[in-house]
Amino acid sequence: MKPLTFTRVISICAALLAVLFVVVVAALKVGAVPISISDLALNLARTIFGRRIEMPSEYRMIVFDIRFPRIVLGMLVGGALSVAGTSFQALLRNPLADPYVLGVSSGGAVGAILSLIFLPRIPLVTPLGAFLGAIATISAVYFLGRRHGQLDSTTLLLAGIISASFLSALISFLVTTLATRDLRGIVFWLMGDLSTPVPDSLHWALLAALLLGIGSIYTTAADLNVITAGEREATHLGVDVTRVKLVVYVSASLLTGIAVSVSGAIGYVGLLVPHAMRMLFGSDYRILIPASAIGGAIAVVAADTLARTVMAPTELPVGAVTAMLGAPFFIYLLRRRLS
Amino acid sequence: MRFVERTIWTALLAMVLSLCAGSSARAQTNPPTPPPGNTDRDAAKAEPRIVTDQVGRRVEVPQPLRRVVSLAPSVTETIYALGAQDLLVGDTDACNYPPAAQKLPKIGGPFTPNLEVIVSLKPDLVVAAANSGNRKETVDALDLLHVPTYSTNAKTVEDVLTSIIELADVLGVGDNGRALADSMRTRLADLHNKLENVTPTRAMFVVWQEPLISIGQDTYIADAMRRAGAESVVMTKQDWPRLSWEEALRLQPEYLVFASAHPDEVTATLNGMRNLPGWRDLKAVTENKIVIISDAVNLPAPRIVDAIEELAKRLHPEVFTDATHGASGGAPAAGAAKQSTEPAQ
After folding, report:
1. Which pTM value belongs to this model?
2. Closest Cα of chain A to B291: distance in Å?
3. How far apart are CA B20 and CA B10, in angstroms?
4. Second-level CATH architecture of B197-328
5. How high is the ipTM of this complex?
């Protein structure tokens, strides 16, 4: 492994940000309504010089009110899910851990749906409900996944899959029995969907929660490097394992919760991206965490761009796109680990 | 914050410009896309009119109203029936009545309309159907984009009439709306008189065969059946209940009612299922008491009266024979479809 220097971290992040920029520009350009590159440039220039008013109103709406906020949302969700996946993989010492596979996304969805059913009018209650659902699920999966006081990789995955399936059943139950409101939309949202815009204020709240979550996890990055070797070993080396676990589980649940509350269960991003980043940049969590955050943003924006363009004007749920790419990759990782 | 925003946009612009340079050679062969709209198009506008829509939201309707996008087949059908189709600049993939509506620019399906396409059509007003195909999320999204969106909503046939009058008023064709609703009301009253002495037929409306889905009592379809001299046997508050076969067999409806634009397909499907357990145990199937009516009954729109009359004629042909015949052909509503009068086999 190459030694980690500040320059290396900066250059890797810069390179990834450059890729993200290209993806974002492409995502701004393509869509159901074609927009030429020169028009896009002209309108961006107008924005910079504070002359948005000169823009044709439907351009302003399509590019700046529909596409750009959706891209921002995709970046937030992708970053959150990838960092959550990265930290679950470290703490559970399991390369197949991911918020979706572990059932944490479904837990978040149950929390979000309960909050929608019982407290529909209060703002920010949905992300909070999703966060609580996520944290309850990861606690349950963690305890179910232990054998003889030790985390067992297979048991843990099974516990996650069983929890996810139980929670999906619970969602079906809630949606069919408590249909006081029109909940048909929820079924669509559950598949992972970014097509519904959120209010600007929520963007800022999500961004704050994202930075808080990623920041807290990053403070434990050096400790995570040690913990991947084993919790007992880490304790011997002076790592406060309990504190690290608490910080990371709470933060990763927060990240999963906010992602689920706005976009439903987008699967496999938290699995695919951390592995890709590990292959590219090594497994030092001090670089892996920021790289996953940016990589996740790239992945979800790219997947969502596919979701809204391949069948335009009809859209696919972005969760279908990530699952189609992610599930085979999961199998590949599983086979590789077994052999 | 402004500085950060500016930096981001500048960086994006730099990217785009570099792409521009790269693609300029190609751009020469392709004529540049003309800008799709004029910025000062809406310079001279009257004060918007403020109305409350049928789900209780306050909607600012720009005046004069020039461009309307429909998000549901029922809305499209109503707008054509009101003669306001010149306002319509876009509708959904599912809008297939009247046939002319199929030629309008499409904005995707009612459940997953494409916001970009809606906005690109520069609508003054978007009209949604709250209980017939559209999601609340779509209306919320359009609200965020400041696109005025009016939702229709109907739980009974009476609601359909009110809904037509109110929508007509919003679209500036209030007289047409009242005339259309009056003619529908006259036909319904006529039917009511005819059916006064008949016992309602116990019928089950089949929304979907596999799994078996019927309708609840609080739907306009159940109300339409009541007005056609039938009663929906499924007693539930849920709108689209998934019915267990045990319950269906316990209910043993006298008639099964299907709605389809392609009756032959339904007949073919039914023939395929006739010998399956469940279906073969229904008396209505063994006695062939099956009625397929126009799919217009599925939409809270003007043709629902046609569908009601059609169902009434199939279930109670005796009251439509002899002397009263002339009255039933009374002034069909604008946009009314041909009525099939052949009784069921």
Report:
1. 0.77
2. 29
3. 15
4. 3-Layer(aba) Sandwich (3.40)
5. 0.72
